[in-house]
Design goal:
Helix content is 11%, strand content 42%. By secondary structure, the protein is mainly beta.
């Protein structure tokens, strides 16, 4: 049956936890971006045509979370950033999961890289937060 091959994406089924804090108040459009660091798998070709591949050992990621101006999670992130600047001790685990089945991202060590820029205008602007991780795992669940 074709119905078994139909999958559904629902942005309301994407969850992100930072330690015990559940992120809420996501922006209207693209609200989470997970980007790997490192070079992935690169190749080098010798003059005689021999090829060697190198696998990057870098398993860290940059995360971008975009929130509505009114999001309570903005205060959580700002507090974590301030704590890290003051004490250097504000690491937290991160888990991002598609509850409909699909992608799972997790790291035991995450931190806020910098405070979100603030701007003001006629409309309430979004707040874009940049986070970084230690070693992390990204997997795609499926059949």
């Amino acid at each position: 049956m074709a119905a078994g091959r139909i999958k559904t994406y629902n942005p309301r089924e994407i969850t992100c936890t930072l330690g015990s804090h559940i992120v809420e108040g996501y922006a209207e459009d693209s609200f989470i971006q997970i980007e790997p660091n490192g070079d992935g798998i690169t190749k080098k070709v010798g003059c005689d045509g021999e090829i060697v591949r190198s696998v990057s050992p870098d398993r860290t990621y940059n995360i971008r979370i975009v929130l509505l101006r009114s999001s309570a999670s903005a205060k959580f992130l700002q507090d974590k950033f301030d704590e890290d600047v003051e004490t250097g001790n504000a690491l937290f685990p991160i888990l991002i999961k598609d509850l409909k089945g699909g992608m799972v991202f997790a790291s035991d060590a995450c931190w806020v890289v910098r405070s979100a820029p603030r701007q003001f205008g006629r409309q309430a602007p979004d707040l874009e937060w940049e986070l970084s991780t230690g070693e992390a795992d990204l997997t795609e669940e499926g059949e």
